[in-house]
Amino acid sequence: AADKIRLIPQDFFAELCEQIIQHLNHKIPGVNTAELCQRIQTSGVEINIGDLAKIANILSFLFSTAARNNLSTEELVSTLGSAGSMLPKHAVQVIRHMWNEQGKAIALSEDARNMATVGQFVDMKWKLGVAMSSDTCRSLKYPYVTVTLTVADPSGQITDKSFEMTIPQFKNFFRQFKEMASVLETV
């Protein structure tokens, strides 16, 4: 991971750390590594989304562990150094700065000790389509609904999950949402 961190320019690394801390403070639902990876690649750096996601997970673990242990900035930096860390100097400087500026907010958060173990819903998109034909059936005229859910997993990685439903399945899905809405209104 340290080799991949060396590739990331300091400003992008700082942005990644900032998003992770905001996620841990429950200010944003997750870290959009796909969008950040695309911007890093556009700047000319060869990195793939899987490597960036691993770095984000490592940093998230680092910051949440430091918050749980209520580490000071100097304790965090010395722990990074004593662990035989091969982190580049710019990364340690960014971590030091971010923890010094915003680390206390994570440590003071009442949820810092109980980080979420389930994902968080971010967005939902849907579209109605009609399958006109296929290679095995000339005339389908079969309507379907495609739903794309955007979720942030517990580590903060934002991903899209897509699925298709028949019209009866969609009606059942819709009915369940209406039931949830009516229950939420009573709360």
Automatic annotation (TrEMBL):
Single annotated GO MF: NF-kappaB binding
Residues that span the membrane, as ranges: none
Matching Pfam families: COMM_domain
Domain (COMM) ranges: 120-187
Function field: Scaffold protein in the commander complex that is essential for endosomal recycling of transmembrane cargos; the commander complex is composed of the CCC subcomplex and the retriever subcomplex. May modulate activity of cullin-RING E3 ubiquitin ligase (CRL) complexes. Down-regulates activation of NF-kappa-B. Inhibits TNF-induced NFKB1 activation.
Family statement: Belongs to the COMM domain-containing protein 6 family.
Record-given protein name: COMM domain-containing protein 6
Organism: Falcunculus frontatus
Gene: Commd6
